[in-house]
């Protein structure tokens, strides 16, 4: 399998690469007709392909083979976080979390959010390249930004956790309370933390209060380490 | 305790802030005589202080109190890694690992290292600000870059692990083999991995081969997640 990876959600039907991937293939990598490449549909498959037309905007390929590549974890990991003001910090979190393995990202709009909007395309670009770089074939879902209240009211089958920094006698370490094989949804707040009202709303809706350790962590660090905690628990 | 933190290794004796911290105090934060600040010596103490002289190069303070603040983990975590070509990736690893809690950083010069030298000052700057931001009072040790062979021959009391990507029947998941309370030294290789010879040298010297998960991780991601794995195991 050629280790030049491309992402084309519709590859199976279109046998084409999207504009940006075509550009990368032809302009950056200078690939030519007959070259071998590997395409993923982000739906759990790798397709070793041969380049038929090296078009700078829509490359056409022939699919030589279909290799199933399911995700490497057997639980659902859904992380909902309040994006930081600094876009770089969100982007590195998205990159690292994707390398590590996450099913779904939900950017939250919280009372104390420093960032009120988030361009989905930029995050998607990062996530796609991290997925390719880490040789995965399942593309995480990236939700548009959603108000906190609306998000927590959504149903979720599995454990629901809220990592907040307010004093709370019922708070447990995520690493202690979550168990192997459990689907997990974790909420991470903005730099200014969740509001008391938001925490209460979450608790009322069945979210469990958790901490991620002794030290005060930045939002993006907390988000990544929350994801990794679940993976570590599942390795045991 | 005032939450404007400063780092001054010699505070107890000198009752001064170093040049850079003085600059930050006077020029950036515009602090004035009589203002309260918190200084850490990086050796496990916070010192609530009062600013006596707001000098742009060497602020003089009076120590009002001495508050012991030992590190929040009761094991030794030593990470040795081959720095990436891209300095930003090293710097974010240093920042995140410090927020999380690490005792010692050792940059390695490996056969396939893309980066042959590393400016200690830049990394130290990042580590200091991460230590302050996460309100810790113990400064991690930052070693100068050291050749792989020389490093692995140093003694270490505790478990020694090498995370390499070569096929190895004896490899175990770090999360499965390391146990709570154990001191750990973990080696993380360059993008091109450790050489076969380096892996063999480490194994001969008692390093245990480990993996960090299913997915292929970037050097800096692997380094951070290796550190976090140890913390998660210790939370259980």
TrEMBL record, chains A, B:
Catalytic activity: uridine(1498) in 16S rRNA + S-adenosyl-L-methionine = N(3)-methyluridine(1498) in 16S rRNA + S-adenosyl-L-homocysteine + H(+)
E.C. numbers: 2.1.1.193
Pfam families documented for this protein: Methyltrans_RNA (PF04452), PUA_4 (PF20260)
GO molecular function, one term: rRNA (uridine-N3-)-methyltransferase activity
TM ranges: none
Top enzyme class: transferase
Span of domain Ribosomal RNA small subunit methyltransferase E PUA-like: 17-63
Entry keywords, A to Z: Cytoplasm, Methyltransferase, rRNA processing, S-adenosyl-L-methionine, Transferase
GO biological process, one term: rRNA base methylation
Compartments where located: Cytoplasm
Family, similarity comment: Belongs to the RNA methyltransferase RsmE family.
Biological function: Specifically methylates the N3 position of the uracil ring of uridine 1498 (m3U1498) in 16S rRNA. Acts on the fully assembled 30S ribosomal subunit.
Name this polypeptide is given: Ribosomal RNA small subunit methyltransferase E
């Amino acid at each position: 399998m050629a280790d030049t990876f491309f992402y084309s959600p519709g590859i199976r039907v279109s046998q084409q690469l999207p504009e940006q991937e075509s550009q990368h293939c032809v302009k950056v990598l200078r690939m030519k007709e007959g070259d071998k490449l590997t395409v993923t549909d982000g739906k759990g498959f790798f397709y070793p392909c041969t380049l038929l037309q090296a078009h700078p905007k829509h490359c056409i390929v022939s699919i030589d083979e279909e290799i199933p590549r399911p995700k490497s974890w057997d639980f659902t990991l859904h992380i909902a976080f309040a994006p930081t003001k600094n876009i770089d910090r969100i982007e590195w979190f998205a990159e690292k979390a994707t390398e590590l393995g996450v099913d779904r990202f939900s950017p939250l709009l919280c009372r104390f959010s420093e960032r009120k909007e988030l361009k989905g395309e930029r995050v998607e670009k990062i996530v796609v390249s991290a997925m390719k770089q880490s040789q995965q074939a399942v593309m995480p879902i990236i939700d548009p930004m959603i108000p906190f209240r609306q998000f927590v009211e959504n149903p979720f089958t599995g454990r629901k956790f809220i990592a907040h920094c307010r004093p709370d006698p019922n708070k447990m370490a995520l690493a202690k309370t979550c168990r192997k094989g459990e689907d997990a949804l974790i909420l991470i707040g903005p730099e200014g933390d969740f509001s008391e009202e938001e925490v209460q709303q979450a608790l009322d809706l069945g979210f469990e209060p958790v901490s991620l350790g002794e030290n005060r962590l930045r939002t993006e660090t907390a988000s990544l380490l929350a994801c990794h905690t679940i993976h570590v628990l599942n390795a045991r």
